[in-house]
Amino acid sequence: MRHLIDFGDLTRAEWESLYQRCSDIMDHPASCFRPPPPVFRAACRGRVMASLFYEPSTRTNFSFQTAMLRVGGTVFGFADPKSTSTAKGETLKDTIKMVSGYADVVVMRNPKEGAAKAASLYSDVPVINAGDGHMHPTQTTADLTTITRLRGKVDGLSVGLCGDLKNGRTVHSLIKALAKFEGIKFFLIAPRELAVPEYMRAFMREHGMWFTEVTGLEAVIPQLDVLYMTRIQRERFVDPLEYERCKGVYVLTRRKLDRAKKELLVMHPLPRVDEIAIDVDDDPRAVYFEQARYGMYARMALLTDLANQEREKPEPVEIGVKPACSNPNCITQTEHYLPPLVKQNGGVDCCAYCDKELR
Ligand code: NCD
């Protein structure tokens, strides 16, 4: 069974074939907010998507729903876990086993790191990670579609990632994806408290990626081809005072863009709080609303592929062994039956759910 849990699991060829399908949908003369080409209009006819949102979402939730409807499928699900048996103490495993009996594809957002990976162990149908505690691969499909569509290529670009690089799952997924391209230069712009986690640094080193970490935005703007702004993730701060110290640290204004390249792409996964001034919206380099629309097309392409697989019982999973991961946000900390799974990251043993180093 093919799931989409982490963008790193896709090969470049698999991404290119997904992008090709996405382009076929977009290039159809009638595609822009009108029905997709006939061949795609019924591509998921009779297929049902379960949409399990354990955390707030606007774009991801709506774009998945509209994507499924536009390729002929139907949708059920929840956007508030308080209305489900999770509130009665049901495990993720039981919810997934039951839901995968009703649906042909499960789309899940969950704040715990590794939640989508955990769900995939128990599902009879493909699981798509719509954002867990550390990865957001379908946002990355939107991001790569935007860059490829508007710049014609991804290789060789200088990409600035700015804001909350510690907690921002979109950034982590994008870094993993860009490792598949050549000649990318990363400018990681964050306050020291919100710098990328060590396992992401190890990942970039292992893949021989060029990166520099800076705290100031203005000095590096002139060098960038893509500036990917992100929100400071208030809900992921343990200490509210630390959020108070970090909020508002970067604000992109029209004036700051004066020194940027003419063909820069200003991107943002949205929602924005105050990190991009409203007057930037009218600058032709601001592409974040188009980026959200490209996300719908990318999800249409993804669903036509993944949701049409045959149902398949997953391999039995051993239970009862205490997970070795000590990351408090890892899904293994709350779903105690999960088997400890280990993977190598830069030659180091890491938890296969959350990527954190195992000690
Ligand atoms: C992002 C997310 O949820 O991680 N939004 C999105 O999916 N488009 C970014 C964010 O919440 O800041």
Description:
Strand 3, helix 5 and strand 4 form a beta-alpha-beta unit. It is built from eleven helices and eleven strands. Helix content is 31%, strand content 14%. With 359 residues, it is an alpha/beta fold. Helix 1 crosses helix 11 and helix 6 packs across helix 11. It has a five-stranded parallel β-sheet, covered by helices on one side. Strands 2-1-3-4 form a four-stranded parallel β-sheet, sandwiched between helices. A two-stranded antiparallel sheet has the order 10-11. N-carbamoyl-L-aspartate binds next to helix 3 and helix 7.
Number of strands: 11
Q: What Rg is obtained from the alpha carbons, in whole angstroms?
A: 20 Å
What small molecules does this complex bind?
Answer: N-carbamoyl-L-aspartate
Number of helices: 11
User: Tell me about the biggest sheet?
Assistant: 5 strands, parallel
Poorly predicted runs of 5 or more residues? none
Distance between the termini: 31 Å
Overall spatial form: globular
Share of helical residues: 25-40%
The average pLDDT is: 93
Report strand %.
5-15%
